[in-house]
Amino acid sequence: MTDASSPARRSLLASRRWRIWEPLFWVLAFAMPALLPSHALIVNEIAIVALFAVSLDLVLGYTGIVSLGHAAFFGMSAYTAALFAKHIMPDPLAGLAVGLVVATLLGAIASVTIQRGSDLTRLMVTLGIALILMELANKLDWLTGGADGLQGVVMGPLLGRFEFDLSGRTAAWYSLTVLLLMFVVSRRFVHSPMGATLKAIRDNRLRAMAIGIPVASRLSVSYTVAAGMAGAAGALLAQTTGFASLDVFEFHRSADVMLMLVIGGTGWLYGGVAGAIVFKLMQDALSAVTPQYWTFWLGLFLVILVLVGRDRLIRPWTWLRPKGRA
Amino acid sequence: MTTAAASPVLSARGLVKRFGGITATNDVSLDLMKGARHALIGPNGAGKTTLINLLTGVLEPTEGRITLEGSDITGLKPHLRVRRGMVRTFQINQLFDPLTPLETLAMTVSQQQGLGGRWWQPLGANQGVAERCDQLLEQFHLTSVKDQATRELAYGKRRLLEIAIALACEPRVLLLDEPVAGVPAGEREELLRTVADLPADVSVLLIEHDMDLVFSFATRMTVLVNGAVLTEGTPEQISTDEQVRAVYLGHGEERSHA
Known about the structure:
- The structure holds 2 protein chains of 2 kinds.
- By secondary structure, chain A is mainly α.
- Chain A has one domain: Orthogonal Bundle (ABC transporter involved in vitamin B12 uptake, BtuC).
- Chain A is built from 15 helices and no strands.
- Chain A is globular and about 55 Å long.
- Chain B is α/β, with parallel strands linked by helices.
- In chain B, the strands form 2 sheets. Chain B has a 6-stranded mixed beta sheet, sandwiched between helices.
- In chain B, helix 3 packs across helix 4 and helix 3 runs parallel beside helix 5.
- Chain B is globular, with a radius of gyration of 19 Å.
- Chains A and B meet through helix 1, helix 9 and helix 10 of A and helix 2, helix 3, helix 4 and helix 5 of B.
């Protein structure tokens, strides 16, 4: 079983091995709420949007499907989890599971709409679905609270033991744990034969078909799995804030998560995590300095990032070198 | 070579493909016998690639039927035709640029062996897949570049990978669309030998411009002109056919500017 005589096998398995910095990163992440208790709230927020960004990376970075409506799944599950806690059962894990299942089902249905057409068609269709759901949440105010949002959501203790405290430490650890679990699953998924066929579809759909890959069903699988993960993120947000409002469906949610992937890089699961960290910390720092105009600085940063290139930007020592040898 | 009694593996009957007012394929019937080394020739624009696209399901024929090993596949999706053993290569390389040759082949072999839907095991965990990849890399001289991104490879290597992907699908019917176009002279013969050395039960349809190559490879030939079959026969018959000489072989100058 452990025979490593095949060079192909050795080489393939080496590419998916955990790097030395990866466990360090996660240990540090889990230590944050304890080390900086006053920042537990932002750690929680980052963990949630990181999960959301990783889920978009599965469709955008690994399958090549563009989406401007990923908030549809995030929002659907946020409302589901909030309603579940309010009317049925306050247990967080049960709510998370229900939210995840509902978002996955929605993803499976919506995956029909992303099969055909160009990138532009997909941008419009995905955006449309998110807008439809937002309007539904707005109109069904007897259920969702409409524009006021769904209030009075009280969560029970996690595992029947850990209460969600005001400082947000329980929430941060809860979100980080869900993020880590889903990250590990995604990591296995993208390194599997199935993940490889998704990359093949992303890189050359014609050839993918010509080697027997069922393109339509693989696109559906990818979109559905990602929808479930986005749903988990949405449920976490509703549960840890005890609130769901129309904001969870808003266009800016779908756009922000795409910006995070632009910042962190696509087709690399840590891209979503890194993008979420940079984006949220910038948002936090900038809006403290200039509450009204922080998007100006964010925009400026994005323009510079795209013009200079990510690889150069994080390696300042290369800035002064002649252009040819960047 | 094959006896007249043998039934065709792949058979097209009365294929027509119209794009608006243009008829790209005009009532083409073609039989590919089991184990055949069949060449499809014709001047540029004769509709050779269109015919391949019809056979593999990339295009839907306006009229006509296609049968593979006795069953009608006219409306079958492209990837399901591959599963039934009909595989093609492309005239213009169709590769997965960010992936390495090894990843590409491992993915293709996994898919071929029915493991393409596995999502929990790592790619390459399967011993059989890995060993087949080693074989293919060796056979196509790709071992030294197996871990480089495909986009960084030299053209000759990319061309080899193009063919290797098709063979990784373990075809029973192989459609080769100008396989050696752009391959350096030294590697050409070898590439063709690899194709010629395929097991005798693999049937090959070769599209090629290079006449020397076609005559050294094929045991049967079909000449396509303006989307229609002009004639079909053995290489000897084709090389002496007056009609073929007139439209194709005889006009050296026409070929050079075509």
